[in-house]
Amino acid sequence: MPMTRAWLTLLALGLVTTTLAAAPVGAMSPAAALVSALILIVAWIKMRLILRNYLELRHSRTWSRIFDWILGVFSLALYGLYLIPLA
After folding, report:
1. Within a domain: residue 39?
2. 65 is a domain residue
3. Reported pTM
């Protein structure tokens, strides 16, 4: 993916994140939990784009997979911490 295309994709995903963050949902509602999950998924996609295109991890499948797992586990941990008060 060329740099310009990666940048435009990141820009579009930033708009998606902003739109989701501005969604009119209650702070501690099930809808807020869904919106938060979607925001974390979009953030994970953005992290992958940055790592693969700007840090050129696309040339190393091993490191790319390692970072995918680390950032995926970190995102799940953040979501779990967010859900604790809802339980």
Report:
1. yes
2. yes
3. 0.82
